[in-house]
Amino acid sequence: LHSDIDSGDGNIKYILSGEGAGIIFVIDDKSGNIHATKTLDREERAQYTLTAQAVDRNTNRPLEPPSEFIVKVQDINDNPPEFLHENYHANVPERSNVGTSVIQVTASDADDPTYGNSAKLVYSILEGQPYFSVEAQTGIIRTALPNMDREAKEEYHVVIQAKDMGGHMGGLSGTTKVTITLTDVNDNPPKFPQSVYQMSVSEAAVPGEEVGRVKAKDPDIGENGLVAYSIIDGDGMDMFEITTDYETQEGVVKLKKLLDFETKKSYSLKVEAANVHIDPKFISNGPFKDTVTVKISVEDADEPPVFLKPSYIFEVQENAASGTVVGKVHAKDPDAANSAIRYSIDRHTDLERYFIINAEDGNIKTIKALDREEIAWHNISVFAVEIHKQHQEAKVPVAIKVVDVNDNAPKFAAAYEAFVCENARSNQQFITISADDKDDSANGPRFIFSLPPEIIHNPNFTLRDNRDNTASVLVRREGFSRQKQDLYLLPIVISDGGLPPMSSTNTLTIRVCGCDSNGSLLSCNAEAYILNAGLSTGALIAILACIVILLVIVVLFVTLKRQKKEPLIVFEEEDVRENIITYDDEGGGEEDTEAFDIATLQNPDGINGFIPRKDIKPEYQYMPRPGLRPAPNSVDVDDFINTRIQEADNDPTAPPYDSIQIYGYEGRGSVAGSLSSLESATTDSDLDYDYLQNWGPRFKKLADLYGSKDTFDDDS
Q: Domain Cadherin, which positions (predicted)?
C-alpha cells in the first residue's frame, strides 16, 4: 500500500486492521507492504476484508481516510473428491436387461468449482466389470451383462472412482464400494430329484394317516419358490390324497379310505408339483411344473374279525319258549389265515340274561320268556374273537324286537264310580266308560262291551256299545230309593280284537244319590233321611270336643298338684351324695384362693358387707340383711353355719338349693381338724370320730358315716 502524500522521509506510518490483521496478515509501517504470515486455505476461508490507513508517525494523526480492500485466496487443487457414503448397497432383479439402472453414487470436491478444473469430477469403475458399468458424468451404475442368474451368483462387489481435474493426469481421486445383490424372480420351474417314489402303508392304517412325502426342488426363493402338489392320475386317486406342507415345501401323501390287503396289494399315483406364482415375463421358460410317479404297496396286518353287517335286527314273539332261535350273526377273519371265530354276548348289555349265543355258529337263542309289555326292544352287543388270537375282536350291535302276542285282557281305563239319581228316567245315560289294553294296537282295539249272560236282562241297568272303544251305561227303570238300596255293582265284560280275543269282567260301582228336578246332584248319604230321629253329626262332634277339653283340664290339674319343691335342706333319710353337684375343677383346700373367695371364712372378724360370687353373674345387686353378720370368733361352728345358710337361702344370686358350698374355714380351736376325706381315704386312719355325735342334728349323717365304724365292724 502507498499513500500519495508519502514523500519517503519516514514521517508516515501505515497501520492495518480487519479480518486476520496482525495474525495472518502484517504490514510494514514504513513501506506499506503486506505479507502473509501462514499458509492460507481457501476451503477454510475464501477471502479477507482489511482496512489500511496512513497516519503521522509522531502524532498518530490520520493523514488520509481509511481505505478498505479485500484479499481473495486463489484456489489450487488440494482437495480430493469424497463420496457421501463409504459403502453403498443396491438391489437389482436377476436377468435384468443390459443398461438397467442399479444405483447412483455421488462424490463432492471442496475445491472451487468456478476456478479451473479442480472440482470437475469424472466417475469410473475399478472393480465389477464386466457385470456393471458407471456413467462418467452422473455416477449412475448400470448392468452391463444380460441374464445374470441369482442362482449362479447372488452378490457382486463394485468399486467406483471419482477423479477431479476432469479425469486428467495429476487430478486427485476418491473411491467407494458398492454391494449389489441380485433379487429373485421366478425363472426356475420345480423339479423332482427322482422319477419314482416307493412307499408302503399298513392295511390297518386309518384315514388321514400319513403314508409318505415327496419334494420337488425349486431354486427360487420366497413366493417364487412356492410349490403346490396334486394327484393327477393313478389307480389310487380314490384311496389317497396329497397336501402341501408350506413350511418344508413337501407334498404329504395321506390315506383317504381304508385299505384291504386281501383286495388290492399296491397302488400307483401320478403326482404333479407346480409353482403357485408364475411371472409372465418368464412364461417362455416353462412349464413351471413337474410330475413324478408314486408307487404305494399295502402291507398285510393282523386284522380283527369283520361282521357281514354293521348291525343286526331280529324279531321274536313274546312268551316264546326258552331256546327259541332269535337270529344268527356271522363274522369272518379278513386275513389270509381265515382263523376260526368264537362268538359271545356282552353281558353289560344283557344284564337279565334273556339270550344266549352259540359260540361256534353265532345263533342267538332265548333263555327265558320275553314280555313285550315289560321290554319291547332288547339291544345287545355281540363279540367276535379269533380263536388263536384273543386280542383280535370285533363288536356288532344287535336289536331284538319282541313281537306282541295277545296275552293281556282289556280293563277299565280308570277306576270308574258312577252316580244315578233317584228320580232318573228310564233309558237315561249316566256314565260313559272306556277300556285300556297293554298289548299292541293290533291285539287291542276294537273293544267290545257287553253284560254277562246271566245278567243280560238286568232290571236296573243296561249297556250300549258305542263301537268307538267306549260304552254307555243307561237306566232301565225308574224309581230308585237310597233307603232301600244305595249301592249297585254292575259287571261288564270287555273283549279285545286280538287273535284269539281276550276278555275280562270289570265291576262298575253305581251309587244312588238325591238330585234336584234338574238332575243336579245333592247328596249321596243314606242317613240324610233319618237326621230328625236323633242328633246331627255336628252336634255329636261338639259334644265330643267338650269332653276332650274337660279331660285335658283334669290331666293338667293333676300334673300341677303332683309337683312340689325340692327341700332346702337335706333330710336325714336322704343320701347327701345325691345333692352334690360335681365340678370339673378341683380346689386346693385352704391354700386355693383362686376358685372361691374364702376370705370371709379365714377371717370372719374383718368382713363388713356382702361379698358377691365370682362363679356367676348376678342379675341384680343384693344387699345383705342387717343383723346377719359373721359371728365372732367365740361363736360355735353350728351357729356360724346357720348364719351362712340363712344368707344363702335369702340370696337370689346364690346357687340352687340342691348344691353345696365349700368352706375353707373350719373354725378356731377345732379338735376335728380338716373335714376333708380326700387324705383319709388314701390312708388307714384310726381317728376317733365319736365327738361328731355332740355337734347337733345337722351333723348326724356325718356322725353316722364315721362314728359308727366300730359298730359296723362288730356286726360284720
A: 3-83, 84-192, 193-307, 308-412, 412-529
CB 716 within 8 A of CB 708: no
287 preceded by a cis bond (ω within 30 of 0): yes
Q: Where are the alpha helices (DSSP H) in 528-661?
A: 537-562, 599-602, 637-650
Q: Which three cell numbers stand for residue 710?
A: 366300730
Closest residue by Cα to residue 662 from 573, 581, 574, 572: 581
- In CATH, the number for domain 306-403 is 2.60.40.60
Structural domain boundaries in the chain: 12-72, 82-183, 196-299, 306-403, 411-523
Please say whether the beta carbons of 294 and 214 come within 8 A. Answer: yes
Grid cell locating 674: 380338716
605 Cβ neighbours under 8 A, 6+ residues apart? 630, 632, 633
Q: What SS3 string covers 225-261?
A: HCEEEEEEEECCCCCEEEEEECCCCEEEEEECCCCCC
| CA dist., res. 694 & res. 707, Å (int) | 11
What span, in angstroms and rounded, lies between the C-alpha atoms of 607 and 628? Answer: 12
Is the peptide bond between 446 and the residue preceding it cis, with omega within 30 degrees of 0?
yes
- Cα-based distances in Å from 670 to 673, 674, 681: 6, 9, 21
Which among 676, 672, 606, 687 has a CA at the least distance from the CA of 638? 672
Q: pLDDT band for position 124 (50/70/90)?
A: very high
CA–CA separation, 547 and 620 (whole Å): 47
Cell numbers linked to 286: 416353462
284 Ramachandran zone, left/alpha/beta (phi>0; psi -120 to 50)? alpha
| Nearest alpha carbon to residue 248 among 216, 224, 275 | 216
pLDDT at 598 over 60: no
Q: What is the mean pLDDT of residues 191-207?
A: 93
* Amino acid identity, position 354: Y
Look-up of cell digits 241297568: 461
Give the tens place of pLDDT for each residue, 663-690.
555 555 555 555 555 544 444 445 677 7
Instruction: For residue 353, give every residue at least 6 positions away whose Cβ sits within 8 Å of its Cβ, in sequence order, or none.
Output: 347, 367, 368
**176 to each of 79, 110, 113, 164, 238, how far by Cα in Å?**
16, 17, 22, 15, 64
Mean pLDDT of the 609-616 span: 48
196-299 has which CATH code?
2.60.40.60
CATH topology of domain 12-72: Immunoglobulin-like (2.60.40)
pTM, entire model: 0.44
In angstroms, rounded to a whole number, what is the distance separating the alpha carbons of residues 565 and 264?
Answer: 108
Cell 265330643 maps to which residue?
A: 544
Q: Which residue has cell 249272560?
A: 453
CA distance 334 to 305: 6
Instruction: Give the span between the Cα atoms of 305 and 383, in whole angstroms.
Output: 9
Decide if pLDDT at 477 tops 70.
Answer: yes
3-state secondary structure of 572: coil
Instruction: Give the whole-angstrom CA distance, residue 216 versus residue 218.
Output: 7
Lowest-confidence pick of 105-119, 259-273, 604-618: 604-618
CB atoms < 10 A from the CB of 49, how many?
Answer: 11
For the sheet with 155-163, list strands across it: 87-93, 173-183, 155-163, 122-127
C-alpha cell at position 412: 277299565
CATH superfamily to which 411-523 belongs: Cadherins (2.60.40.60)
Q: How far apart are CA 648 and CA 662, in angstroms?
A: 12
* Amino acid, res. 509: T
Query: Which ranges of 603-697 would DSSP assign to H, the alpha helix?
Result: 637-650
